[in-house]
DNA sequence: GGGGTTGGTGACCCGCGGGTCACTTATCCG
DNA sequence: CGGATAAGTGACCCGCGGGTCACCAACCCC
């Protein structure tokens, strides 16, 4: 085997691709530019990857796998924290969140591009898979939390899990676009408290009926929402991932 | 002026462009295909628009303006509902939300593409401008609500406004991807209650310290939210849109 | 109807960028 | 050292799609 190939070539290309992807997005990244950035020629690129598509698939799959491992472990620990005061519990949860968002901040460039899903959203399925996994884990945390008296009993688990995933999603989308590093801990603590305790004043909470999220046996009489659109046009690309909005566990009031 | 031009040409092209955009995204939409769909030739396209970019700018700007008008009016009415029971208030708010999300559902294809921001996010600035406006309006609603005792007094307005905008954003992102029409009213009511009252059980809420969101009851001296919005400037091109994560009104933790 | 004017057509131009390949270069082996 | 072999190079190929323009068609006016 004369002329051994550069053993770092693949790695260098992946790193260069990540940088280009962050700067220019998927369609904006040119094979020639990636190769140049990695210190080699376009021709060499094709010695290490079958094409642009394969390179990016590898890049994104690897990253999402790392992120999934991190959040899986974190949510697992979320459940493990127990037998302590409310304040202590919140503090530990916030610590978990800080670790996750630290990672997000470190990789904000890539994550921003992935969340955009730009250029035909070719990696949407990976992001969706991840979110679905996260949502499912969250649902489990919620169920455990209800058993332990942490969360209210009348939660619609699907909706609440989506609500949580949504809060993370939103936070990630914001953080990822910051230009200077936000102070994560106080931010995450505030969000944690907003999610747990809501916006309402005690007064409003007490004067509202005791049906905070979901059911109530369904009013016998009137039909609300009189089927305003029997069914809708279009609805082309399906992507029918199990969303909390479909098949909600509670009926339609 | 012999041979008068088709007076509907521009409209037909815009409609065709919207359809193509929804199906294929920005880069995926071809001028030739748009023209064909509008029932004319590529050449005719260039008689009505200076180019692809102008067409899409017009399309998106028009749509965002319509959406902004709708949400502006809705948030305005949000504030106007007063002097009624908590249940009634929530019911009215939900009705407002239903109207907005009805519109979102009707235009889900376009909105999905806009939220993706795909293809270099060329319209990001418009979406950002809209969100900034929305967030700012929400902040106002929150401030009014606190004065009226609806929301807790210790809210960090910037964070809470972002929290609200985030909840809508998340919901929109979900709804826009549904394949069948979700039953909006019960869904939005549940979300409303989640946002207002949070996830926590009464037990957890009571055992937690009385600092739910942000800081202590505000030292009497301090100015809260240093000029949250006496009146907000136009905030033209949104690059540096005022994010709740930067310059938070309360200090750290 | 015929000439003048403007709307409309589609073959063509051309830059861009993914992918190829004949050729060059580095390295190993004898 | 020299030949064999595989890594690496970059000029080139080619399809794609935005944009153009010589030409044709519809319409108004006289």
CATH class category label of the largest domain in chain A:
Mainly Alpha
Radius of gyration of chain A: 23 Å
Number of H- or I-type helical stretches of chain A: 11
Taking pLDDT < 50 over at least 5 consecutive residues as the criterion, the unreliable ranges of chain A are 212-242
Mean pLDDT of chain A: 83
SSE-based structural type of chain A: mainly alpha
How do the helices and strands follow one another from N- to C-terminus of chain A? Answer: HHHHHHHHHHH
Question: Could you tell me the strand content of chain A as a percent range?
Answer: under 5%
What does this structure look like?
- The structure is a homodimer.
- Chain A is mostly helical and about 250 residues long.
- Helices cover about 65% and strands about 0% of the residues of chain A.
- At the A-B interface, helix 1, helix 5, helix 7, helix 9 and helix 10 of A face helix 1, helix 5, helix 7, helix 9 and helix 10 of B.
